[in-house]
Amino acid sequence: MKSIQVKKEFNAPIEKVFELLSKHATYNVAFAPIQVVRVKDSADPERPDGVGSVRRMGFGPIKPLQEQITLLEPNQRIEYKIIKNPLVKHHLGIIQFERLDANRTLVTYTIELQARAPFVSQLILAQLQSAIKIGFSKLAKTV
């Protein structure tokens, strides 16, 4: 199984960084022009983007990629998986949060991926790594 890891330091408290990255709408900023829309709320009315929620990603009316939040530990960890995608055999996204001090947070984003077609995983992961680095740099300027 192939994987990538991106680390980014945010000059903000862990609570603020977690709150930002736990919202599906945040990824509209991070990964523009890709659009992200929550299509299913979690069972927790206090946190509709929490465990069980589903987001669709794509462009305009075409959003074929669906991700479901599978774990959410406030100020510590978020996990999600891709669902209903015939091209991807396994995709797990893990976002970990580490308090460096009162106003600095280290975010570590790991993605495991196995595509159904050979050699495709490495290409997808290279593109994701680049997009995450750019997206996190954009987001770090907003907090």
Automatic annotation (TrEMBL):
Signal peptide: none annotated. Transmembrane segments: none annotated. InterPro entries: Polyketide_cyclase/dehydratase, START-like_dom_sf. Pfam families: Polyketide_cyc2. This is Polyketide cyclase. It comes from Acinetobacter gandensis. The lineage of its organism: Bacteria, Pseudomonadati, Pseudomonadota, Gammaproteobacteria, Moraxellales.
